[in-house]
Amino acid sequence: MEGEAAGQSQVLARGDQGAQVLDLQQRLRKVGIDTAPLNGVYDQPTEAAVQNYQALRHIRTDPQGVYGSASRQSLESET
User: Fold this and answer.
1) Which residues, listed in sequence order, are joined to residue 12 by a DSSP beta bridge?
2) Nearest Cα to 50, choosing from 36, 39, 64?
3) Using CA atoms, how far apart are residues 19 and 24, in angstroms rounded to an integer?
4) pTM of the predicted model as reported, rounded to 2 decimal places
5) Residues 64-75 pLDDT 10s
6) CA 71, CA 59: separation in Å to the nearest integer?
7) Residue 19 burial class via C-beta count within 10 angstroms: exposed 0-12, middle 13-18, buried 19 and up
8) Cβ neighbours of residue 64 under 8 Å, at least 6 residues apart?
9) pLDDT per residue over 15-65, tens digit each?
10) Which of 1, 8, 65, 74 is a Cys-bridge partner for 51, taking CB atoms 3.0 to 4.6 Å apart?
């Protein structure tokens, strides 16, 4: 993401909130995965959307529903 040093991307999971979560929600929506609402809160709907994305892209190296490095790399390459 803009303003972050390479390799310093944060792992995001339920309970997190802020600009990085909002960016995640917006990126998921761009690839057709609904995260309603776009609120910058990593809540149950966002966790479910990440799980859906991981299943569709066969991402198994990150824990289910956790936006880790493999999920981030895949999603950011698409958006």
Assistant:
1) 67
2) 64
3) 9
4) 0.88
5) 999 999 999 999
6) 7
7) exposed
8) 51, 54
9) 999 999 999 999 999 999 998 899 999 999 999 999 999 999 999 999 999
10) 65
